[in-house]
Structures are given as C-alpha cells and as structure tokens.
What we know:
Elements: H1 2-17, H2 21-32, E1 37-50, H3 57-66, E2 68-78, E3 83-92, E4 95-104, E5 107-111, E6 118-120, H4 127-138, E7 141-154, E8 157-168, H5 170-190, H6 198-204, E9 209-220, E10 225-235, E11 244-256, E12 274-275, H7 277-288
Parallel strand pairs: 6-12
Antiparallel strand pairs: 1-2, 1-11, 2-3, 3-4, 4-5, 5-6, 7-8, 8-9, 9-10, 10-11
Helix pairs in contact: 4-5
Amino acid sequence: MKKLVIISIILILLVGCSDHSQEDYQRALERTERIEQESFKFFLNMDTEIETNTLTPNQQRIGSVLKTLGLTVEGAVDHLRHERTQDIHLSLSGSGLNFDYYEQEDDLKVKVPFVKEYVSLDAWANMTRDLEVLWQSSLKVEKVDKKETGLIEMPDGKVKVTRYEVMLSETSLHDFLQSLVNLGFKRLEAVGMDLDAKEDVLEVLPLLSIDSFEYEVFVAADDYIVKEILRFNISVPEAYNDYIKYSSLRIERNRYKLNEDQMIERPNFDESNTITVEVLKEKLKEILSPYAS
Length: 293
C-alpha cells in the first residue's frame, strides 16, 4: 500500500510539472488570430554597416542616411469591416518622414511627405494582412520555453503577462525574407516602379547569413499575445558586401484594446484631394530634381 501511494504521488508530480509551453503558446497564437478589433503599435530599428571606401560621394551621402533606420507605426484595425488606419513615422539617421494611411476593403489612400494630396495606392491594399499571413506561414517552431510571469507596460497601462522564448528553425527567417521580397517586388511592379536591382537582390538573398536570433512572445491572462519582440542580425557575403556589410534589427509589436470598438475615422476623399501614383512620381521628380546631382 505504501509503495502504491508513493508511485501515485510521483505520477501526480510528473503530470503537474510537465511542460505544456508549446501547447500554451499554440493556443494563444490561435486565439490571437481570431481577434476582431485591435489597436497596435509597431517598432522597427535597423542599424547597418555601410562600406564607404568604394562609393562615390553621392552614394556615401545616401549610405550615411541609411545607416540608422527607425520605423514606428501606430493605428487601429477592424478585421470585420476590413478597415485600418495607421500613423507612420520613418526616421533615417535622425531625419523624419510622416505618412497617414487609410484602408477600407481594397481601397487605400496614403498621405505622403512633400505633397498636399492623398495618393491612391489600391495595389498596396491589404499589404499588412498579407505580411501577417507570410509571417505565420513561414514560422517553423522547434521549441517553446515558458519563462517568468510579470507586469509589462503597454500603451493602455500595465498588463500581467507570461513571457515565452520561441525557437524557430534556421530556415524560418530565410523563408519569410524570400516571400517578403517577392511580395514587395510584386506590389512595386503593380504601381509601375522600375526594378533595376531585382535580379541582384534575388541572387544575394539566399546567401545572407542570419544569426543572434531571438523571438520573445508575451501572453496575457486571457491567452492573447499582446507583445512580440524579434531580434536578429543579417550579414552579407563578402562577394556582395561592397555596399552593405551587416545589419542588426529589432522588431516589436504591441496589441491592446482588443475586441473593442476602434472608432476608425477616414477623411472624405474625392478628386480634389486624391492623386494617382503617376502624378505623385511627376511631383516628386520636380521636388527632388535640385538634389539629384
């Protein structure tokens, strides 16, 4: 009888201490994918080492601007009504550019710097949704470790979360970058952009080295993923690094006000305040012509 009690206690302890990290993470991922409305804040920071010795003075000026890139996107989305609004701030080595983004179904209007009108960019509608699908389809999770529980600061206040460290396969980021570049080229071609560097980019992409990869996921008590942090480095092979040698990236996404009415408002768009991509190209060519030399 005593042996039976001891064995029972051991079995209970084993079951109680078994690691369900991957199952818990998968449940949170599936629940998060069903969110109907949300506010979000997205950050991207990229530091790049530029090879300047072989560059012309004009290329060196461009390189100095691209050395430090920061992107902040803040907005709201209603997945049921297919509506999205975003305030976008792009920082290039300290110089900032602001964009306003309004999307409804397949209709996309963007307010860009230097021109007073909104640009109709329907060919880029649903880009954010497509990126999320690409990311999830590229993920090949090998291991999930559940870490500590604690409070984190979110845009709408402090939230109690459990932190997970997610280990992905070596091919996950390569697959995502390949799909991302192909999608980007497809969208650029749709608006008539010149893609002289396309073949060069596609040639070097599989040769990139990705290391120091870290992916953290923060899950709230209601099993929603409210924060994700991704860090990694990209090295360019020596045969191709006559311009860009190395980049270090940090990406963060926050979700809040989940399944709450987002009160998304759009300006009234008409012919008086909306232009096409072709008109935008001509306007920018005229504006930037003094700096082309």
